[in-house]
Each structure stands twice: as C-alpha cells, then as structure tokens.
C-alpha cells in the first residue's frame, strides 16, 4: 500500500508525462516499491537459508515467474492488440514496435530512447530493472557469506551513484555502458537488501528498534518530499544528487514500519483496507495506465479531476477482478514451490 498509492496518484492525478513536476510521486512510489521488494525477498531467502540450510534457486525463480509473468504478458499482448487499432500517433506506434523485443526480454530500461518517458508501456521499466537484479542476486545470497554479498552490493551501488551524479567521467553519458552502470543497477533495491540483512541479525534488530519513535515515519516522509522537491526544482538531470538522500529516507521509512510497535502505524498497515490494497497492488500498477486511457477515451470531454477519479475507481475495479479471476488461481501453484512444501516432498 505504501508504494502503490503514490504511483497511482502520480499516474492518474498528475499529468502522466510530466516527469519534471516538483513532486514526482510516481517515481518515488516505484523507488519505495524497490526498497520494500529488496527487503522482503532478501528476508525470505535468508530465512530459507537459515531454516533449511540452503536456498532453492529453482523454486525461487518458479515462484517469481508465477507472480510476475502471467499478468505482465497478458497486458503486453493486450497492448500488441490495441496499439495498431487505437493509438493515433504513428510515432508512438513505431516506438512501441521498436521496443517490443525489449518488452519480451525485460531489457526496456536499458534500450529505451533517452528522454522518451511517456511511450506506450513505458512504466514496465521498473519490472525490467527488478528482474535484472533478481536474475543474479539470489545466487549470491545462496552461495556467499552475508558480509561478502553486502560488500559487493556496496561497491556496485557507490560506483553507480558516482556515475549517475557525474563524479566520474566514465562511461559516456547515455551510452550503453552508462545505462548498464546507472540504469541497470537499481539502487533502492540495494538499500532494501541491506536492510533485510541487517534486521535478520537479532542483535541489530533489537538495537535499531530502540531508536524507534512515533514521529520517525512522519520525519522520513517529510525528508523524502523535501529532497524530491529539490530534485524537481533543479530538474531530473541536475537534481540527481538528491537520489541517495531520497533512497535513504525511503529505507528509513521501511525500517520504521518493520520495527514499529503496536501503535498508530501498526494499525494503519494492518488494517483490512491496507492489506487488500497490498494484495492487488501488482494489478493496480499494471492496469492503471490502461484504465486511464480507457476512461480518457470514453469521457475525453470531462474535466481532468473527473477523469482522474473515474480512472482511479476503474483501476481498483479491474485490479480486483484481475486478482480474483486471473492471478489468484495461478498463484495457488506457488504453494508447491514453497521451501517447506518442497522439503516435505523430497523427504518422501
């Protein structure tokens, strides 16, 4: 819930293509999702390694594929059907067909045309970034000690930040090498992974929990919004120096949610509404642009606030149906690849 609501607000309420807005909530929502994803997946894998002595990589990738691929490719094929029939811009059509191989291979974040941020199915770049990271990181977690893994991620993260901010001149800006170093390294996930490793240590968890205060989540949000505003004032290019500070604030927000005692924050995150939004959050992310385009086509003469509100409602309706009728039946197969289930089958 924490990450999807800013994304929906940024996509459906703010202009979809306005990436230079002072508060780019869609982007910060995706970054927050990366931090949460890195934390959750690293925690689950480390628990598996602790409880069963190893990480079943094949089972991990099967679970990952069952969660991500069905809905992703369903919507991609919908775009393949809809684009030639309903997209009026020939230029946008050509851009979509040019990137189609990248959509199928989860490399669109690397091959995307620089500066083109409102192309069709562009928002899938975040899934590409995530899949690229999880293509190799679980193997590191499975076969290497935690300190070695964290050292590698730290070096990679520092090099990527320095390259993005411009502290190093290599590689050439917007070259393929630059994209691999900057775009191909999803820094917020690194923060999430680091947080997962830290909180898996009971002593570290208890030590960090001592610092929790009720105002920390609020301060973290204000911290993030402050640096996000500075980024917007200086532009996406010159404001890149703010990215590490924003990512730190997002990691602090996730930490505060994890160690929160049973207070106001615990109540919000464990409410029925929050749990439901979390359950359908993947569908909300995948369907929101299509929903907006549908509403915008059918009610194009309506005021923008009305279109945004209708798109918001349609997105929730479609995502709920999508989860119930399409995603949930497929996700039932994931239970066969949970560590405890596989261990039970192997013992028999």
Short description:
This protein is mainly alpha-helical.
Structure characterization notes:
This protein is mainly α. It has one domain (4-277). 75% of the residues lie in helices and 0% in strands. The chain contains 18 helices and no strands. Helix 2 runs parallel beside helix 10 and helix 3 packs antiparallel against helix 4 (90-105). The longest helix has 30 residues, at 57-86. The chain is globular, with a radius of gyration of 21 Å.
Tags for this entry?
single chain; 348 residues; mainly alpha; 0% strand
Q: How many structural domains can be distinguished in the coordinates?
A: 1
Q: What percent of residues are in strands?
A: under 5%
Q: Describe the largest sheet.
A: none
Based on the structure, what is the oligomeric state of the protein chains? single chain
The H-and-E topology, N to C, reads as HHHHHHHHHHHHHHHHHH
Tell me the number of helical segments per DSSP (H or I, 4 or more residues long): 18
Question: Would you spell out the secondary-structure blueprint of this structure?
Answer:
Blueprint: H1 4-13, H2 25-52, H3 57-86, H4 90-105, H5 108-111, H6 125-134, H7 137-143, H8 146-165, H9 176-182, H10 187-200, H11 202-209, H12 216-238, H13 243-258, H14 264-269, H15 272-279, H16 281-298, H17 304-331, H18 339-347
